[in-house]
Amino acid sequence: MKKSIATLAVAALAIGGTAQTLKTPAPSPTQTLKQNFALNDITIEYSRPSVKGRIVFGDLVPYDKLWRTGANASTKIAFTDNVTIEGNTVPAGTYSLFTIPGKTEWTIILNKNISFGGTGDYKQEEDQLRFKAKPTALADNVETFTINVADIKPTTATIELTWEKTRVAFAVTANIDSTVMKNIESVMSPADKRPYFQAASYYYNNGKDMKKALEWASKAVDLNPKAYYMIHLKAKIQMDLKDYKGAITTAEQSMAMAKEAKSDDYIKLNEKLIAEAKKAK
Predict the structure, then answer these.
(1) How far apart are CA 149 and CA 222, in angstroms?
(2) Exposed site from 19, 61, 149, 166, fewest CB < 10 Å?
């Protein structure tokens, strides 16, 4: 009888031990960053170690050795469309992001194998791209390793790695101009419901034919006479065409409507444009 009780007690303890779980904070928590870029997305998945009073580059992360660029599994970066990185074409897809930190120069690596747990199985022949980047010193300490997509413009962005007092960045360019131009030609052909404002905005932001941009902006305003942001775009295009008098008149119209709508941002934008136009006259 005693043996049976003891056996049951051990079994109960074993079951209880199996069922119990203890959740604690991850020392290097994972982050997934998804950034809309150009016509598609950039997605970055990585683990984020912290400094914790240590010397990072040259010690915790040795110079001139392959680094997984984060902690735990290798960092992954995905592009949903073809891009150009520092002048090199990179097909759409998912890549492992590795780096070789140096005192004065880093090597940035995109590798086609995304199954790494670290650097042990890395093979250089599986690289999609290798290029050099210069590190810059930061004034303030970055405690937790951070990858960010910054300086986002219609077709360009900067991917930056920051940790401790070091920043390394590289440029990404989307080759979408031909696609957008074909789309504009297609959607602008119907007799009605033309996206005049979007087409004018793209032409203005990308330095296309400003006369055509003005034509489309004017038609957008005709169809939306109270849209102060559309009127402001027209004023900017007139400014670009050096029609300073027209730009002032149009910006004043936009500002009056912005005041009515209590849009402080557009009030300031119009005030600035009017001042610049008066100075340029």
Answers:
(1) 38
(2) 19
Between CA 110 and CA 122 the distance in angstroms is 11
Any idea where the domains of the chain sit in the sequence? 30-174, 177-280
Rounded distance between C-alpha atoms, residue 196 and residue 175, angstroms:
23
| Local structure of 147: helix, strand or coil | strand
pLDDT of residue 61: 95
Mean pLDDT of 176-205: 80
> Which whole-number Å values give the CA distances from 39 to 159, 169, 176, 179, 196, in the listed order?
17, 22, 7, 9, 19
Angle in degrees, CA 171, 174, 175, rounded to 5: 130
16 vs 258 pLDDT, higher one: 258
Q: What is the pTM of this model?
A: 0.62
CATH superfamily of 177-280: Tetratricopeptide repeat domain (1.25.40.10)
What pLDDT, in 10s, does the model give residues 119-138?
A: 878 999 999 999 999 999 99
